[in-house]
Structures are given as structure tokens and as C-alpha cells.
UniProtKB/TrEMBL annotation:
Stated name of the protein: LPS-assembly protein LptD
Family: Belongs to the LptD family.
Subunit composition and interactions: Component of the lipopolysaccharide transport and assembly complex. Interacts with LptE and LptA.
The LptD C-terminal domain, residue ranges: 294-649
A Pfam family reported for this protein in Swiss-Prot or TrEMBL: LptD
Subcellular locations according to the entry: Cell outer membrane
Keywords: Cell outer membrane, Membrane, Signal
Length: 727
């Protein structure tokens, strides 16, 4: 017999569990774990014509009373909205509104399924309990067991003697066990008391109390510990605490115990408003037991402020207490190689045809060298009027800079003005672009033999190119041929009396073939009378425009010696530059090769070169091989890889070797294990410190539990930086 009852609306207990950490971790692709077996509740049995709040009941037999206890037996099904209940036996008490179920009780809601031996629920008070409940959270892909589930008062669910895991139920690699878990649904948070994390049923971490969010919303609380080790500081243990101060700003405090040095206190404050965003970072080591330095600190301030639709103010400031801070306390080869730290405050604004910026900038020097000049201030105005009917492109740039702060070099001010005019004549197959630039620079110097210096110079250039293309391989590909000539002329002016505030010699590169000035900055304008010739060919896919192969060759031909130099350098002679060769392309869809070489035809030798080979296939096998050299300067080789050993284990490594001095610069060896519910990464690292003699060893360990996040050190970030393509 089928009985339908629509006089009342049953409100079933809603149970949800989330063991996510306090912050939201980066999303990771996981293998799929087997879904725990659940009792089908037959939610599809409910007629679609019923309103959502109506209660639908089916049973093999039923005895209903208007007052008192109604009973149902045999395949009992109760549903309301997206909630459904199934049991062998059930009863309904009127007018109290108490529903009870027993015998293979199954319950499901939008994101959760449960099986239990017994259910009691008070519709009037919206309170109830379940005994011996097994649950499955579809959204989190997690499940567990609770001896008793209680909802009292409404909005609070209490799980007693509970477990939680995202691993297969028959053999969980990890589980969280707690005496009590309270879920505060209205506040979207939960708390756990007397909790133990077990790995393969072995307790590894005990927490007397901790709280966690039920959703992706941020919440104050402890983050997972960070563990690491190196020879200089010993064992490192950090226990961050996160303060969710407001939806748009937060604070993280990180005390770190350094085994050989003492307690370091770190903090990071982040904020985001309609006009402001930024980060404030500060770390302090009050008493360093491993050195004679105390109150060692590091700070980093980054702020960006929008002052209007086209105006902004940017602040970046970084500093340390002493020159050896990164050598002693840095955890990477890059940090120990830092030679200066920048502090800058920059204002930018723009109009339809102009832009303006002002800059305040100085540096903290860490290697004992000469500090770069401070720019206090630098003012830069650019103007580009609308293109006129004659096709002329006009642009002007005015820069005023006050250089100060140097105790060994000349200080002073510099005013630089430049105006440029060009016009492009082009067709689909060719173009020619003549350009003329006028430079005018004035210096007002402090404590110099010649305090006022003026320099004016013109520069002219002519850029021309052709485009040819043809179909190859029956039209599957398009090949282009692009010859290009670039001529530039700048007359000689003696500039030896001008100080060098920000100029340096540009390194030879393919792009440098088409630059008018061989120096950076404004203090040197190189005399030039040269022609650059280049040829580029490309193979592209006409379907998506993808470049499958590109090769270029180019060279500069000089008609005069280059007399303008930096201090203590001799004029540059020779009638041509090195021959520059570049090539890059796909050997196959999995392998890409790129190379650059500089050939000295006078000595018939390569002065510099670089080759990179990158391989990555659908099985996530990654191999990167590199070689780089510069004659009489350096020669190095590198290798990195990430290779699955089997479906769960992956071997990872990176190696960089100094061939010139026959020594390893850095070696990283790691391994990664992945199952459907947890991952671990281990890496050992050995690298050379800036003194070129001392080496440091570090060990990184990271454990990532699906549904709980990861704790340990930044092993994944290290491996991503060292192995191109590793994810």
C-alpha cells in the first residue's frame, strides 16, 4: 500500500563537515577515490508536481492517526525538497511533530549522504539526533563515522567521537579523529576538540582544540606548521596564525623557531580597498645565537593607490638590518645573491596624448659595492600628438632627475629633452620607415671641475623590410621570409666630461640590431654609423597562427670606429659585430628547442651561446636540458626532470654545473608520492653561497592532505622554480 501525506512539512536535520584549513589552498588535481557505499534513498520517487515544502511519503504498509503516533514499515521513503530519508521502519508523532526512523536509515541532502541505525527529529524545535552514523560529503569528497550526531539548538550540529578522511573507507591512509566536532552552520565555521591526525593509523599530530571554516570563506586560526632545515640555521619550525580582520584585509603572524639562532617573529598584513591594495611584511630576530648581530630584521612594503581613473601612486620599499641577512637567513640561491634592495615611490598619470610620472628612488647595498645614485626626484613627461594627415608620427620626452646620495661619485641634476619624428611607407609586402631624433641634455653638477655641461645630438635611422610567404606541405603550413635592413647614424660628440649616473653598455642581442643607441640611460649617446642586416624565416600553422619554427640571422656593419665610451674604456674598433643566430621551434608536439649563438667570423669561434631543450608529454614526463657559455667568462650546463616511476611515485631533480671551474652550482633531488587522498614531496638541496666557497644543504618536506590542505615547507614552489613545466 502506498500512502501520501501532505498535511505537514518535515524539516530533516542537515549535517555538514569540512576539515579544510583556515585559509584556502591552491586547487590541486587529484585522483578519484572510491565513493563509500551508501543506501539509495529514492529521491527520484518524489512526484515533480509537488511543491518543494510538501512532504512525500511512501511505504509498504502504514497506519496513520490524526493524533498520536503514525507508523510505517517496509521501504519507507520520506522526501522534502532536495532532502530524502529511507528506513525499514519509521514513525510520526502528532501534534508534537517528532519523526523517528530505524533499521538501515539512509539520509541525503544537497551535498551529503548518511547511513545510520537510528534517527529522531523534532520538527517543532528543529532538533534531533542520529546514532552510529556514517556520512559522505559529496562536495568535499570526504567521509567518516560519528557515534552520535546531535542538532541542538537549531543551527548547531555536534558530532561525537567522530572520524574524517578523504581516503577509501576500507584502508584510509590518513584520518582525523576528534572527541567532539561542532558545526555552526549560520557562522559557516566549525570547531574540533581533542583531535588527532593519524597517518596509517599512527598518531602524528595532536590538537586539543582548533577551528576551521565550513565553506571557502576565510577564518581566523592557526595554519599548518612549516618545517624545514639548513646547515646555517638548523631545524626551522613555523606556526603561523591567521587573523581574518575583515573581508578586505587580514594579518598573519608567524613565530619561527630556528634551531641554531633562536626565535624569529614574522608578520604579513594584506589589504584591498576600492583605491588601495598592498602588503606589509616584517620579520625580526631579536637575539641571533649563531652570530654577533642582534635585532636582525627584514621589511617589505608594497602599496598601490588609485588616485583617479588615470592616476596611481606606487610604493615599494625593501630593507634588512645588515649585509649578511640573506646569506644567513635566506632559503634560496636567489636570495643569497641579492646585492641591493630598492626603495621607490612613483606617481603616474596620463591623458589622451601624454603621460607623466615622478619617481623617488634609492637603494640599500648589501655587497659592499658602490651604491647607485638616488633619484630624488625623477620627473618624466611624454607627449605624442595625434597623427596628422601627412602620416608623420611625432613624440617628445622630457626628463628631469636629481642624482644624490653617492659619497664617491659626482652628484647633480640632469635635464634631458628629446623629440622624434618618423613616417612609415608600407604595402602588404614591404615597408620603409625613416626617423629623426634630436637629443638635448644639460647637467648641473656638485663638486666637479666642470659644473655645467650641455650636449646636443641628432640621430637618424632608416628601417626597411620585406615580407614573402608561401604554402608548404600542401597548404598545411605557411613559411615566411623576412629580410630587414636598419641603418642608423649619430655623429660623434666628446662626452668624457659627463658623469655616468645611469648609463651602461647594452649586451649584444638580436633586438640590439635595431636600436639607435648602444648605451642604456641618458648619459651616453653613442656615435654610430652602421647598417644592420637580418633575415628571419618562420613556419606557421594557418589554422591557428601557431609558430612551429623560427630562425633568424643578423649582423651589424660599422663604417666608423665607436669613440664614445664609458670611463676607463678604450674606443671600440672593428667593421662588424658578431654574427647573431637564433632558432626556436617544435621538434614534435612534445619537444621544443631554442638556441642563440654569437659567431666571431674574425677568429672563427663562438663567443657566446645558449641551447635549451624542453620535453613534456601527456604522461607528465618532463626533461629540460640547457647549455650556456660566454668566452673567457663562464660555461655552464643544466639538467632538470620530473619522471613518473609508477602511477603514484615521481622522481624530480635539477642540476646546474659550472663547467669552467668544474663545480656544481646547485643540485636538487626530490620525490613525490600521490594517492587519491594525500601527497608528499621531499627534496634535498645543495647550493653554492655568494662567497663562491661555502656550500649549504637544505631539506624540504611537504605533506598535502586532500580536504585538509598542506603543511611542511614550500617544496612544491622550490620544484616549480627549478623544473620548467613541473606543476
Amino acid at each position: 500500500m502506498v500512502t501520501r501525506l501532505q498535511q505537514h512539512c518535515l524539516r530533516c536535520v542537515l549535517i555538514s563537515l569540512s576539515c579544510s584549513p583556515v585559509v584556502v589552498f591552491a586547487q590541486t588535481e587529484w585522483m578519484e577515490c572510491p565513493v563509500p557505499e551508501t543506501i539509495p534513498v529514492g529521491s527520484d520517487q518524489r512526484p515533480s508536481s509537488l511543491p518543494p515544502q510538501a512532504v512525500y511519503i511512501e511505504a509498504d504498509t502504514a497506519l496513520f492517526r490524526a493524533q498520536g503516533l503514525s507508523t510505517m514499515e517496509g521501504n519507507v521513503h520520506v522526501s522534502q525538497g532536495d532532502k530524502a530519508l529511507r528506513a525499514d521502519r519509521a514513525s510520526y508523532q502528532q501534534p508534537e511533530g517528532i519523526v523517528s526512523g530505524s533499521g538501515n536509515v539512509g539520509f541525503s541532502s544537497g551535498n551529503m549522504q548518511l547511513r545510520s541505525s537510528e534517527l529522531h527529529y523534532d520538527l517543532g524545535k528543529e532538533t534531533g539526533e542520529m546514532q552510529d552514523a556514517e556520512y559522505y560529503l559529496q562536495q568535499a569528497d570526504g567521509h567518516g563515522y560519528s557515534k552520535r550526531v546531535v542538532q541542538d539548538p537549531p543551527g548547531l550540529t555536534r558530532l561525537e567521537n567522530s572520524t574524517y578522511t578523504t581516503c577509501p573507507a576500507d584502508s584510509p591512509d590518513w584520518s582525523l579523529n576528534a572527541t567532539t566536532i561542532n558545526l555552526l552552520h549560520d557562522e559557516e565555521r566549525g570547531t574540533a576538540s581533542n583531535a588527532t591526525l593519524k597517518i596509517r593509523n599512527v598518531p602524528v599530530l595532536y590538537l586539543p582544540y582548533f577551528s576551521f571554516p565550513l565553506t571557502d570563506a576565510r577564518k581566523s586560526g592557526f595554519l599548518w606548521p612549516i618545517i624545514g632545515s639548513n646547515e646555517r640555521s638548523g631545524l626551522q619550525l613555523s606556526i603561523p596564525y591567521y587573523f581574518n580582520l575583515a573581508p578586505n584585509y587580514d594579518l598573519t603572524l608567524t613565530p619561527t623557531l630556528l634551531g641554531r639562532r633562536g626565535l624569529q617573529l614574522g608578520s604579513e598584513y594584506r589589504y584591498l580597498t576600492e583605491k588601495h591594495k598592498g602588503t606589509l611584511t616584517y620579520a625580526l630576530l631579536p637575539d641571533d645565537r649563531a652570530s654577533d648581530k642582534n635585532n636582525r630584521y627584514y621589511f617589505n612594503v608594497q602599496n598601490n593607490t588609485r588616485l583617479g581613473s588615470v592616476s596611481s601612486l606606487e610604493l615599494k620599499a625593501e630593507g634588512v638590518s645588515d649585509d649578511q641577512y640573506f646569506v644567513d637567513l635566506g632559503n634560496s640561491l636567489e636570495s643569497t645573491s641579492v646585492v641591493n634592495l630598492e626603495r621607490r615611490l612613483e606617481y603616474r598619470t596620463a591623458g589622451e596624448n601624454w603621460s607623466f610620472s615622478s619617481l623617488l628612488q634609492n637603494y640599500q647595498v648589501l655587497d659592499g659595492g658602490v651604491a647607485p645614485h638616488a633619484r630624488l626626484p625623477q620627473l618624466l613627461l611624454r607627449y605624442r600628438p595625434p597623427q596628422r594627415g601627412n602620416g608623420l608620427n611625432l613624440s617628445t620626452e622630457t626628463e628631469f632627475t636629481h642624482f644624490s646620495g653617492s659619497k664617491t661619485e659626482t652628484n647633480g641634476t640632469r635635464l634631458d629633452l628629446s623629440a622624434r619624428v618618423s613616417k612609415k611607407f608600407s604595402t602588404d609586402a614591404a615597408y620603409i620607415r625613416p626617423s629623426l631624433t634630436l637629443h638635448h641634455t644639460e647637467y648641473d653638477l656638485d663638486n666637479a671641475t666642470e659644473t655645467r655641461i650641455t650636449r646636443s645630438l641628432p640621430s637618424a635611422s632608416l628601417d626597411t623590410g620585406l615580407f614573402f610567404e608561401r604554402n608548404i606541405k600542401d597548404g598545411r603550413y605557411v613559411q615566411t621570409l623576412e629580410p630587414r635592413l636598419f641603418y642608423t647614424y649619430t655623429p660623434y660628440r666628446d662626452q668624457s666630461n659627463i658623469p655616468v649616473f645611469d648609463s651602461s653598455k647594452r649586451s649584444l642581442s638580436y633586438d640590439q640590431l635595431f636600436a639607435e643607441n648602444r648605451f642604456t640611460g641618458k648619459d651616453r649617446i653613442g656615435d654610430t654609423n652602421r647598417l644592420s642586416a637580418s633575415l628571419t624565416t618562420r613556419v606557421q600553422s594557418p589554422d591557428d597562427g601557431r609558430e612551429l619554427f623560427r630562425a633568424s640571422i643578423g649582423q651589424m656593419y660599422y663604417f666608423d670606429d665607436r669613440k664614445v665610451t664609458l670611463p676607463d674604456e678604450a674606443p671600440v674598433q672593428g667593421d662588424k659585430s658578431e654574427l647573431i643566430l637564433e632558432a626556436a621551434g617544435e621538434i614534435n608536439p612534445r619537444t621544443r628547442l631554442s638556441s642563440t649563438a654569437y659567431w666571431d667570423s674574425g677568429e672563427n669561434t663562438f663567443n657566446a651561446g645558449e641551447v635549451r631543450l624542453r620535453y613534456k608529454d601527456d604522461k607528465q614526463r618532463i626533461v629540460n636540458v640547457g647549455y650556456a657559455q660566454r668566452k673567457d667568462d663562464f660555461e655552464s650546463a643544466s639538467l632538470s626532470f620530473s619522471v613518473p616511476v609508477n602511477p603514484r611515485w615521481k622522481a624530480i631533480g635539477a642540476w646546474e654545473h659550472d663547467l669552467q671551474n668544474d663545480r656544481d652550482l646547485e643540485t636538487v633531488i626530490g620525490a613525490e608520492y600521490e594517492s587519491c587522498c594525500w601527497k608528499t614531496r621531499v627534496a634535498s638541496r645543495n647550493y653554492l653561497l655568494p662567497d663562491n666557497t661555502t656550500r649549504d644543504n637544505a631539506v624540504f618536506v611537504e605533506l598535502e592532505l586532500k580536504g585538509l590542505g598542506n603543511f611542511g615547507s614550500g617544496t612544491r614552489d622550490l620544484l616549480r622554480d627549478r623544473v620548467y613545466g613541473y606543476e
